[in-house]
Design goal:
It is built from ten helices and ten strands. It is of the alpha+beta class and 309 residues long. Strands 2-3-4-1-5-10-7-6 form an eight-stranded mixed β-sheet, with helices on both faces.
């Protein structure tokens, strides 16, 4: 299998250039990425970061006019991704879809959207205060063939910087809403495919032990390992980095940033007898699991970030 790494891009390929523009700020902002990669290299799991297979990347959006999934997905559909299964997260008031890449060396995409109309009027008013002036779909104004322009878009200020008070109003009802109102389309996480690692580390259970040995804090919502109903998709994640945020009223506060996820895709039953190293992507469990994802979302929630140890 050709491996898709964090930063191992084909410079002549437009999609590769888009992803490069997306990843550079993420790597700078999430110290756990380099900490984990460095430990993997020093312990002989990989020779360099280019050996890491990226299972998927994820984004969060707001369900308001001219934004949300219908807008954001246009970028990846343009670059050959295919829209796949729909997910509904009732408790968190979210919709989501995942997208299959144009070829196996690229990561899957997971895009979620906050059901803003399901929130209280108070919170809706705060969100609309910042997004009401977006009167056209911002993706429609992009030259999607210009990879540099598209890469920059992920970190573009689509609305005014929120006040700390408005951020806290959202935080009290929807931590997802508060994350997006400050971070916008910032990359929420990328995901290491642990089943591609050497045998001593190629399960989520083994890799979690390795992560904790180097001081990485894991999301414990629903248990450190989130397992699909069929037992073939296992996931874990770090607790989001706390970042220094400056708000519009010159007030500062530490808020949740981004994190790293880990996925283990086991072989489908009919391919279980095949040696792990010889399995193709199509022979392993595909897609996502709503119960797993529901708990992975909480990597940025205060129930995890404020937890000791």
């Amino acid at each position: 299998m050709q491996k898709y790494a964090i930063m191992n891009f084909d410079k002549e390929n437009g999609l590769s250039k888009v992803l490069e523009g997306l990843f550079k700020p993420y790597l700078e902002r999430v110290p756990d990425v380099n900490k984990i990669t460095a430990a993997m290299v020093s312990n002989g799991l990989i020779a360099s970061q280019h050996d890491i297979v990226n299972d998927h990347i994820a984004f969060r959006t707001l369900g308001v006019p001219n934004l949300g999934i219908n807008s954001f997905e246009k970028i990846f559909l343009h670059y050959g991704y295919t829209k796949e299964d729909y997910f509904f997260f009732e408790g968190k008031k979210l919709d989501a879809y995942w997208y299959a890449p144009p070829s196996p060396e690229y990561p899957r995409i997971f895009i979620s959207e906050l059901r803003v109309k399901d929130l209280s009027k108070k919170v809706q008013d705060v969100i609309l205060k910042y997004t009401k002036n977006i009167t056209v779909d911002p993706v429609d104004t992009l030259d999607l063939n210009n990879a540099e322009e598209v890469g920059d878009f992920f970190y573009k200020s689509l609305w005014e910087l929120p006040s700390l008070e408005d951020y806290q109003t959202l935080l009290a009802e929807s931590e997802y809403a508060s994350w997006v109102i400050y971070n916008r389309y910032y990359l929420n996480h990328y995901t290491i495919s642990v089943h591609e690692l050497p045998e001593a580390y190629n399960t989520v259970a083994k890799f979690n032990t390795f992560l904790e040995s180097i001081g990485i804090r894991l999301n414990t919502a629903g248990g450190k390992i989130k397992t699909s109903a069929d037992g073939l998709l296992k996931q874990s994640s770090t607790v989001a980095e706390m970042i220094d945020a400056e708000f519009s009223n010159n007030k500062k506060s530490k808020i949740s940033g981004s994190y790293v996820e880990f996925a283990e895709r086991l072989p489908l039953p009919e391919f279980a007898s095949i040696e792990s190293a010889k399995l193709t992507r199509k022979q392993r469990r595909e897609g996502f699991e709503s119960a797993n994802a529901d708990k992975i979302f909480e990597s940025t929630f205060s129930s995890q970030t404020k937890k000791e140890g």
